[in-house]
User: What shape does this take?
Amino acid sequence: MRSLKADDAAVRFAAEILSKGGLVAFPTETVYGLGGDALNPSALARIFEAKGRPRFDPLIIHIAGLETLEEIADLGPLDSRARLRLETLTAHLWPGPLTLVLPKQTRISGLATGGLPTVAIRFPAHPVAQALIRLSSGAVAAPSANRFGCLSPTRAEHVLEQLDGKIDLILDGGRSPVGVESTVLDLSSDPPRLLRPGGVSRERLEALIGPVCAGDGSSPRSPGQLTSHYAPRAPLSLYAGKALAALDDNPREGFLFFCSSTCNAWLEGLRARGGNLPALPVPRIRTLSSRGDPCEAAANLFDTLYALDGLGLTHIRAEAAPEESLGPAINDRLFRAQGAL
Ligand code: TXA
Ligand code: MG
Assistant: This one.
């Protein structure tokens, strides 16, 4: 399978592939997407096939301008409060890592929506994603470009590792800067429901539109939020910082600290107990953000999990992030990685 640097010619070539019903992996600011023409049912069917994803798990449709919104979503059923929320959110947060669930237009295939009467829509900020969408039909269905249940890709190499031979092209646009998937917010219910924590924090949403309720991720309304998801090959366990810092070292295990202060406390504990100190830096012991910044930690999350998973470790022991900013999005991914056990 070809992986091309995402210059103008490569993006044009990718758009041609999409218009013929083919599949292209492309960079977005959150993670890489596995794109197919949202208006072509056989392309949609190929996406499920390539990912090994169950058909009931609906896709996000990506657009590259607000003018396309009403071709995908039917705003008719929304009351004035819901419309105001939609206007506020799109004005402040689009393009960006926010996916909105809205009533669907009848022309949108039930294949894209898992048979639901609603559709998930996102306007990504990444310039390569925007150019690709504009040069194709204007509506690109794209789940994250990983095999179902596996780690989401933040680099073209991650996509190649998982989907080689199953798709037509990878556009390589470097590393995805946000590093966790978009926040999914259901605007078809009142109050709006947060179906997946992601690249836009709950605090930011609530500052703009008032209270949102936490969606029950396991409910059939967001079927993608299955417990076993985002799984590395090595078993992963999630710990509060203090609990992780109290563990003994094991040279066959990986340690994933949220911040340096926990890593330092762990080293201090090992020293106090007279244990062997690992000679840092070592690839199996990683810190997501030395200063403990949740946005920096989110940006490093999948990249670091891929790196740890390539080491053939017997176990990965990870520190939970604080429950603020992008912390809940990080913890959601780590919790589901753990659910794979
Ligand atoms: O950042 C992202 O959102 C990435 C990039 C590529 O844009 N895409 C992504 O897609 O994460 P995916 O398919 O891995 O996750 C889509 C999520 C799933 O949890 C799915 O269940 C939910 O969105 N979803 C899609 N349509 C829905 C709908 N109509 N109602 C409720 N949830 C929906
Ligand atoms: Mg995914």
Summary: The pocket of magnesium ion (ligand 2) is lined by residues 143-144, 152 (CB under 6 Å). The CA atoms of residues 284 and 314 lie 11 Å apart.
